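Quick board copy: two proteins, each given as sequence then tokens.
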Amino acid sequence: MMEIDSEKKLGTWGLTAFYISSVVGVGILVVPGIAYQIAGPASLISWIILILSSIPLAFLFARISMLYPNSGGLIHYIRLMFGKRIGDASGFLLLITMIAGNPIMGIASARYLLHLWQLPATNGMVLAVGFGFMFLSVLFNLLHIKTGSRVQLGILAALIAGLLATVFIAVPHFQLENLTPFAPNGYFSIGAAMVVCFYSFLGWENVSTIAEEVKHPKRTYKKAVLLAVGLVGILYLALTTSVIMVLSYGKSDEYSLVLASLLSEISTPNATYMGTIAAIILMVLCTNAWVLGASRLVTALSRDGVIPAVFTKVSRTTNAPYLSLFLLLAFYGLVLLLLYFGTGTEKELILFANSSFILVYVITFLATYRNLNAGLYRIYSLISIIFCVISMFFIGWMIVISALFMAMYILYHRRKTKHGEKVV
């Protein structure tokens, strides 16, 4: 019996693949260009800071996973450390963040598709096609489809191989003159670019949701987190360097199409076409995964009483949480509609997603600083708190909005307790 059970659990390479799948996604196809637009070649410093900062973040999340294995992930840990009220408020904020943040992937897919078909990428067209991609992902998640681990590993391997091949082909096209001016918008823009780049590093916390499925957690997490941090860092740094050294700053209006722009400079039209198709496929797969994760979060919060219990219902035939998915689709449409009338872009959504995750991270790291007595992990916690606080400064007023969502839920929760409901 033990042998059968052990075969179902993740080893080092399986956990490493999950790490990389969680962190490397749409962000690597969009964010490097946006950061380059904000800070120019100096955005490279932003990426280096983020890569170094991700080391203590990743180790802390791995430590939480080892000590407190639970499918509730960070929310479960925050509940244990600070109580149900703060834990539920953090879960509510993450739900709002997924509702607002997931359409970023639909928008990114729309931009690449319109570029592929050579159609005008007006704001209305991008948002409409973006909603179409979100609709497809919701439909996909209504099906009872199980993707095998070999397929997932194969897609991940193909992604890494393709991106590294792009970097390798780009090296002969490097131009040192692209490094000047190094900071065209001033060195303060490095911080602004860093906040945007942070979106590409969201996902280290996802490992806490699968901790119960990891074989020999202490040994496996230590190996996997080292491999993942190294591979992710190399991948982002290599692609970002290629973008900066090949694409001249200020000569492109399509910074969000960073991979397509890079391929058009270093390869043939056919290769660019195939690369764009591959990018769209990758983004669709990532969107499917994040919509699935969001629907599970809706269901979990519904079971915990954070949101109405009706969203716990699942389909009898496919076991899909159809009400959760329809709720998400409605809110995705609302977010994109607000962007249209507010003439906003995915940059605002990225900033909101980053601000919300940073706020939840601060709560988590305050807990680890108090709870993890080992000197090294307390240092990691302190470094991570300082990094998050600095990031808050560059995010600015958007962090206030995230804090308001948490405050709204806490006030609502307090009002419920006054009517006789017990807080666990």
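And the next:
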Amino acid sequence: MPPPVSVFFYTGCVVLAAKNTKKLLYNPTFRSVLFQALAAAALCYFVYSIINNALTNLDQRGIATGFGFLSQEAGFGIGLSLIDYDETYSYGRTFFVGLLNTALVSVLGILLATLLGFIIGIARLSSNWLVSRFAAVYIEIFRNVPLLLQIFFWYFAVLQALPSPRNSLSFGESVFLNVRGLYFAKPVFGPNAYWIGLALIAAIVSGISYAIYAKKKQKATGQQSPILWVSLSLLVVLPTFSYFASGQPVYLEVPELKGFNFRGGIGIIPELAALLLALSIYTASFIAEIVRAGINAVSHGQTEAALSLGLPQGKTLRLVVIPQALRIIIPPLTSQYLNLTKNSSLAMAIGYPDLVSVFAGTTLNQTGQAIEIIAMTMAVYLALSLFTSLLMNIYNRKVALVER
């Protein structure tokens, strides 16, 4: 008895499916997508297994999970806070205090390290033997000493050796330096102080407008205008005039010694100063070598051509060499900025209240919410690094040479 028609139909379908499957498996595009999908699925399953096992173990031990602890009262003080904080605030508030302190030292460190690094890098190429050797010694010393040791040096050997508050080093009548930190006068703004702010904004807008006008004039006529001095004059004259015209609404609050420490004014704690000095000086040694390499990568013929046109060395460096060197300097410079931000976590060694010390340290010890706290801390550093990379990539595309 012959087999029914359905058997032949199903057999044909199986054979056809096998042939199509074989063709797909031999298709490079399909195989690449398939393997990537399998790898992604395996990674997701691996992460899910770790999280599920961790939550199960914590539940068996009676350890609470979740982010409800952020609303609980912290109960501990923080030495430096850019926002209002005391012991009655929540753990969520400590997170933001630590985050702002980390951002503060990172931003200030990047600015100082960049300025110092460019100065040392240019000095390294100086024709003056003494200046060049001094820059080389600076680079070799600070680049080869571990950062943690440099932090300890500035904090314990330098700042902790300063006199007590009663024997403070005074600079004038409003600046005092002692073992507790640096204290100086704080500006206090009165009711009409907003006029000074408006005058400052007007000065900035006027300076930018004048710079645009001066550049257009130079392109049209070839005549150069003093952009820098005019802009600085506007920034000084307009706010000063507004200050006196509005009745001098700003006065200085001078720090005064009361008890064992100074009260009033602005105080910079020694932990911040030590960390900022160490990060800036250490990172600047690497930035200096990056700047030196970028300048050396520019053809010497560019410098000779600029000098032959009568440009002084300062303008040659600023207008000809540095703009071409930036396309080489920016990518490794971004890495140094990221390293500085991440190295700021070493602040815990001297008690600076950054995110790691305040949140991943004290808060973690009090709450035991290890997974949530470490995950939030890692997310913050990841976000800061990605944001820094984004800004630097935008700037890199702006200064890159566009080939015609």
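Board note added afterward: The mean pLDDT is 86.
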